[in-house]
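We include the entry.

. . .
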Amino acid sequence: MSKRKFNSKNKRSTSGKFNQKILEVLLKNPNKSLNYKQIASALNITNIIDREILIKDLQALLADKKIKESDRGKFKVNADQHYLMGTIDITQSGSAYVIVDGLEQDIYIPKNKKKNALQGDVVRVYLYPQKPKKSNHRPEGEIIDVVKRFRTLYTGIFEKQPSGKYGFVVMDNRALHVDFYIPKDKFNGAESGDKVVVELKDWPEDTDSPFGEIVEVLGRPDETSVEMHAILLEYNLPVSFPEEVEREAQELDVEIDEEEIRRNRRDMRDVVTFTIDPKDAKDFDDALSIRKLENGNWEIGIHIADVTHYVRPGTLLEQEAYHRATSVYLVDRVVPMLPENLSNLACSLRPDEDKYTFSAVFEMDDKAKILNQWYGKTAIRSNRRFTYEEAQEIIEGAEGDFKEEILTLDRLAKILRSDRMKAGAITFDKMEVKFELDENDNPIGTYFKISKDANHLIEEFMLLCNRKVSEFVSTDKNKKPNNNTFVYRVHDDPDPDKLQDLKLFIKQFGYSLDLRDRMSVTRSMNQLLADVKGKPEENLIETLTVRTMSKAKYSTENDVGHYGLAFQYYSHFTSPIRRYPDMMAHRLLQHYLEGGKSPAAAPLEEKCIHSSAREKLATEAERDSIKFMQVKYMEQFVGEEFYGFITGVQEYGIFVEIPETRCEGMIRLRNMEEDSFYFDEKNYAIVGRKTGITYQLGDKVMIRVAKADLRNKQLDFELLG
C-alpha cells in the first residue's frame, strides 16, 4: 500500500503566490484597468503579509510583460502578449501540449507549468514570446487557468491509508499525474483495492492533490464488466441513457403510415432488397435493392434508415444523439448513439418489415457507369438478412437466395473498386483481432476478421452513395462548385516527412516508395501493401503506413477532399443510426431537395468539431478495451514462450507482437541482461554498447510472457533471443 501523505502546502515559495490569480482577475476584465486595491478585493486579500506579496507579484508580472500599467497605479493584461484558449493533452512524462484552433503548432507546456489542469480540460495559456533565433522551435507557454473541465468524474483504484482517516484514488489514466485525496467521510463504502468512480470536488491552490468524493464503487479491477464500465467513464462516454430520453423513445409513434408513403415517399417495397451485415449485428442501417430495367440496365438502390424522421430537432433524443455523436464499440458491448427502440427496432432495416428510408437510386449499365441518379425519401421491405459469411459463400459458388442479384452486385462492386484504385485510392485491408467470449465476457480465444468480396461489395456501394450525395449537393449541373453548405468527411495528404521516414525504413526489407507526386505515392503504397501480404513484416509495415496518414475529420470546408479514397467530394451519409454527422447530411440533403437555400456554415462547423472530438474519444476507448482483453487473455500464458516481431522501439524498451494473437508486450531495456543497450532513434533500433547486438523494428525474437498487468493494461515480456 502507498505510504504517501497528504501535503496541504504547495511546494512553491510565496514568491509568485498570486501570479495566476492576478492574471485570472485581469483576464476576466480585459477592457478595464484595475488598481492594487481592486485586485486585492477581488482576491479577498486582507492581511498585511499577503498584501505585500501581492505588490511583489504585480511588479514581477510587469517585469515579465505579462501585464502592463495603463494608468498610474492601474493594471491590465498586456494586449501585446498572447493569451490563448485551447484543449490540454498531457503526456505520460507529465509535460503537456495545448491544442489551439487555428494555430499550426501545439503549444508545449512544461510539467511544472500546468497549474491544476487535467487531461482534456479547456485552458487559458500564456504563450511565451519567441526569441528570433528559435523561430522554428515549437511555441512554449504556461497554463493561466482552467476555463472548463473536460469532466468531473474519474476512475481509479482506492487506497486507504493505514490510519483510516483518509485515502487516495490512484488514477487509471497515466496522463493524470495526480491522485485524488479522499477524506474519511467521502469513502462511501469503498475498500482498498476497489475500482471506484471519484468526483472532483475542489482543488485548493495550496494543495498538491485535488479533493474528491467516491460516488460509485465499480468492483474489483480484474473483472471485465468493471473495466469496460471504467473505460467508458475514463473517456467521458455515456454508460446508459437518461430515463427521460428512454421515455421519449418509447413514446414515439413507430407504426408505418400508408398515407405518409403515398404523399411523401417513393414506394420501393416490391423491389428485391436485402441487407448484408456482420453476424452479430442488430442495427441494420443500410440495404441494397436491385432490379433489371427494360432497357437492359440495372437499377441499384442504396437505402439508408431514415433516422431523422423520428429524431427531430429540439427533442431530447436529438440532444442526446448530438451529445454522444457516435456509437461506441467495446469488445464486450455496444454503447449506441440512439436508444434500442430506435437503433435495433424502428430504424433497423429488419427482414419482412416495412421501413422508412432515405435512398440513393442509380441506373447503371453493365460496366457500372452511372447513367441516372435519384435521391429522396422511400419505403422499403427487406426480403432477406444476409451475414457476410452467407453472402461470401454465394459469391464463391454456393447456392442460395437471390444468387443472381448478389453476383451482379459483386461484379459491379469490383468494377467500382478497380476504378477507385486507378484514380489513386489507397486500400488498407488490415486484419482485425476479435475475441471469443464466455458467458461472463471473459476472453477464451481469438480469431481474425478478414475483409472478403462480400465486405467489399457493401463497402463499394456505401462509398458510392456517400460520394454521389456529396457531389449532388456540392455541384451544379455542369459539375462546378455551387458553395452549398454541407458536412464533409475530409482527409488531408500524408505528412511528407513521415513518408520519407517510411521510405527509408522499408528499404531494409527490400521495398520502395515513389514519392515524386501524389499519384506515384498512392500507386507505390498500394503496391507495397500488396507485396507485404503474408510476410512476417506485414502487420508492422501496414501499421507504419497507416501512421503516415493524416486523420480524417468532419468539416463544412472541403479544401482537401478525401486523400485516402481519392474523392474530391465525400460525406458520411450511410450510417445515421450510429453517427450524428450522417443525420446532419440527411437533413441538409432533404433541405436542398425541397429547394432550400444554403444555411450558415458556422453552427454546422461547430457540430463537426464536436463530432470529430467524440469520434476520437470513442476510438481511444475501443483501443483500451482491446488492450485490456489482450492482457486478460494472455494471463493464462504467463511463463510460456512465443516468437514475435518487434513492432516498436523506444529509449526505455522494445515492443513485441505475437502474430497468433496480435497481442503486444514490452521488454524493458533495464531487464535485458546480455548487454547495456542504447536507443538508436535514426534506425529504429537498440544497440548493445559492448557487443554491438542490435534489435530493430521487424526483427523476429523469442520471448517469454513475464507478467500480465491488468491494472495498467500492459504485458511484460522477457527476451530469450
